[in-house]
Design goal:
single chain; 185 residues; alpha/beta; six-stranded parallel sheet; 7 helices; 6 strands; 15% strand; disordered C terminus
């Protein structure tokens, strides 16, 4: 599956900006990035290399139109903001727009573990429920999905070292780590 056009929800947040920086520094010339921004926002994407489209995130039709023509949707919605209904709307809009891959907003520990289930929803969101919904949609053949579960120190590492996400080399059966873990490429 080739991923060339990527729609990013949450592009101006810490995770979104970090991912955009990595995509652009690694192979951005081969990607078309679009920041999908709230229809009421006047913010601009974190890079002039990123296109901007507005969407009403309470309207499936509006979000579907924003996702149209994209190969992947990258959800960078933070922690407690990952409530089920808003993420379900993003997933359903991606499916309706013909998007091939949904990159779930997990960026945390294993969301399906017992320990994770004990964390307060107001801090971690409804990620296990969202994961289940994505798994069901994938079984139906509606969309492929992936997530990045980096463990508890991922945020510290991400902001202090180089991490290259594997969207440039996405293969539905494998993932790649583009860093040896010791700071060498």
């Amino acid at each position: 599956m080739e991923i060339r056009r990527i729609a990013i929800v949450g592009a101006n947040g810490r995770v979104g900006r970090a991912i955009i920086d990595e995509i652009l520094s690694s192979n951005g010339q081969h990607k078309q990035l679009t920041a999908v921004i709230r229809h009421t926002s006047t913010s601009v994407p974190p890079s002039s290399a990123v296109a901007k489209v507005h969407a009403d995130f309470s309207s499936k039709a509006s979000v579907t139109a924003a996702f149209a023509g994209h190969d992947a949707v990258l959800s960078c919605v933070p922690g407690g903001a990952t409530d089920f209904e808003s993420q379900k709307l993003l997933i359903d809009a991606a499916i309706a727009a013909g998007v091939k891959l949904f990159f779930a907003s997990e960026y945390s520990a294993n969301v399906m573990s017992e320990q994770y289930a004990r964390l307060p929803v107001q801090f971690v969101g409804e990620k296990p429920r969202i994961r289940k919904y994505l798994e069901d949609k994938a079984k139906e053949g509606a969309i492929a999905w992936t997530a990045l579960n980096g463990g508890p120190f991922f945020d510290l590492y991400r902001y202090n070292s180089q991490v290259v996400f594997f969207l440039s080399k996405y293969d539905a059966q494998t993932s790649n780590a583009d860093d040896s873990g010791n700071g060498e490429q």
